[in-house]
Amino acid sequence: MKNVLISGASIAGTSLAYWLRRHGFTVTVVERAPAVREGGYKVDIRGAALDVIGRMGLTGAVTARATGMRVATHYDRKGRPLATMDADLFGGRTGDDVEIMRGDLNDLLYDLTRDDVEYLFGDSVTAIADDGLVTFEHAAPRRFDLVVGADGMRSNVRRIAFGEDAGFVRDLGYYISICTVPNTLGLDREEAVHASPGRTANVYSTGRDGDAKALFMWASQPLAYDHRDVGHQKDLLTEAMSGAEWEVPALLGAVRGADDFYFDSVSQVHMDQWSKGRVVLVGDAAYCASPASGQGTSLAIVGAYVLAGELARGGGAAGYEREMREFVRVNQELGPANVKGMVIGSRLALWIQMRMLKLLPYLPGKEKVVERVAGAIHRAAVAISLKNYME
After folding, report:
1. Which domains does the chain have, with CATH numbers?
2. SS3 for 280-298, per residue?
3. Sign of CA dihedral 77, 83, 85, 89
4. What is the rounded CA–CA span in Å between residue 373 and residue 367?
5. Residue 46: phi, psi to the nearest 5?
6. pTM of the entire predicted model
7. Strands 190-196 and 262-269
8. Could you tell me which residue ranges the FAD-binding domain spans (predicted)?
9. 221 exposed, middle or buried (CB, 10 Å; 0-12, 13-18, 19+)?
10. Helix (H) or strand (E) holding 120
11. Distance between CA atoms of 257 and 50, rounded to whole angstroms?
12. Which of 126, 172, 209, 298 is the least buried, fewest Cβ under 10 Å from its Cβ?
C-alpha cells in the first residue's frame, strides 16, 4: 500500500502528505480550489499537536508567524468597554500554545511537501471503485492503493464511500460566519467583542494582517440553504444579527463585499468507523470537533501523524483508530460545553459573565478561575501518548 491519494489540501491533508512521504509512500493530493487556500481564521496549536509540529521541524517557523494577539475587550451596545482580558486567556491558551492564521500554517505545510508530493489543483474525486480506480472531474482516472478523505466536515470522499444520508454531521444548535473586513476600528492585535442574548459578534486584527476578521456566531434551529449560494448565506447572517447594535450594522455592510465569506453550522462529525475498503478519513472529515472546541487544527495535525505512522508500521486503519479514539472523544466533548460560553442565552447570564470578567483581575484565587477556562482544553490537548514512528 504505497500509492496514496489524499483528497483535500487542508491542514490534515498537507500534514498527512508530509508524513507519508517521510515513510516512503508515493503521494498525490487533489484539491478543488485552484491553489492552497490562503487567509482563513486564526487557529490554535496545543499539546500533542505542538509535539508533532516539532517533529516536523516547524516550531520556529510557526512561532514566528504567531498572531501576536494582546487583548480582547467586550463592548456594550453603545460601544462602551465592559471588560478587557489577556488574549491567551480569552483563547484558552496556556504554556507554549501557539495561535496562527490558518492560511499561514497551510503555507508552511505546503512548502514542506510541494517538491516531492504531486498536487492536482482545481479538481475533485467523483468515484472510487473497489479496486482503487479513482475518477476525477477533470483528470484521467487513476488507480491508488488507498484514498484518504481530508476534505473537511462536508467531506466529498466520505459521501462517496459511506453514503449521502449517513447522518454523521451533528448540529450543535449554532451557526458561524467569518470573513475579512476593513480594519475600521484600528485594532492592533486586539479582539473586540459584542454579545447579546443568543448571538455574538467578534472582530479582530492580528500582528500579521492589515485588515480585520469579522466572526459572528448565533443560536439557531437548522437553516435551509444552498452551500453554493453565498448571497443567500449573507442574507441569513444579516437576518440573524438584525437589531444588534455596537459596530454590528457596519460590519454587516462590510460583509456584503467580502470575497472570502465562510458560513456553516457549528457541528461535529461522529462515526463508528473511519475507514471502509480502500478509503480512510482524517481530520474534520472523520471527527470534526467544531470551531467551538478550539481543537480542530490540533486533531488534524495529530490525526495525520498517527495515520501515516500506523500505515507505515503495519497497524493500518485499525491501528489509527485504536490510537486516536480516546483523544478524539475527549476533544469533541469540549465543543458543546464551550459554545455555551461563546453565545450566551440570556441577559442575566450575560450580565453575570461581564461582571466576572471585569472583576477577574482583582479576585482572590483567580488562578482557579483561569484553570476552569483553560484547564479543560489543556487536558484534552495532551490526552494522547504519541509513538515515535520514525524509529
Report:
1. 3-51+103-169+267-337 (3.50.50.60)
2. EECCHHHHCCCHHHCCHHH
3. negative
4. 10
5. -135, 160
6. 0.93
7. unpaired
8. 3-312
9. exposed
10. strand 118-121
11. 36
12. 126
Q: Give the residue among 33, 11, 58, 52 at the shortest CA–CA distance from 119.
A: 33
The CB density around residue 192, as the number of other CB atoms within 10 Å, is 22
| Residue (of 232, 320, 225) closest to 265 by Cα position | 225
Question: What stretches of 129-285 adopt beta strand conformation (E)?
Answer: 133-136, 142-143, 146-149, 169-181, 190-196, 199-205, 212-219, 262-269, 275-276, 279-281
List the pLDDT tens digit at each of the 391 positions of the chain. Answer: 699 999 999 999 999 999 999 999 999 999 999 999 887 789 999 999 999 999 999 999 999 999 989 999 999 999 999 988 888 877 878 788 999 999 999 999 999 999 999 999 999 999 999 999 999 999 999 999 999 999 999 999 999 999 976 789 999 999 999 999 999 999 999 999 999 999 999 999 986 667 999 999 999 999 999 988 999 999 999 999 999 999 999 999 999 999 999 999 999 999 999 999 999 999 999 999 999 999 999 999 999 999 999 999 999 999 999 999 999 999 999 999 899 989 998 999 988 888 878 777 666 665 666 666 678 888 999 999 999 998 7
Residue with cell 484534552: 380
User: Rounded distance, CA 38 to CA 40, Å?
Assistant: 6
Residue count of the chain? 391
Residues 200 and 343: their CA atoms lie apart, in Å, by: 6
Residue among 386, 391, 370 at smallest CA distance from 91: 370
Judge whether 169 and 269 are in contact, CB under 8 Å: yes
Residues 231-248: b if buried by 16+ CB within 10 A, e if exposed: eebbebbbebbeebebbb
Alpha-carbon separation of residue 374 from 121, 176, 388 (angstroms): 39, 22, 28
Cα–Cα distances in angstroms (integers) from residue 294 to residues 55, 75, 166, 201, in the given order: 22, 23, 26, 17
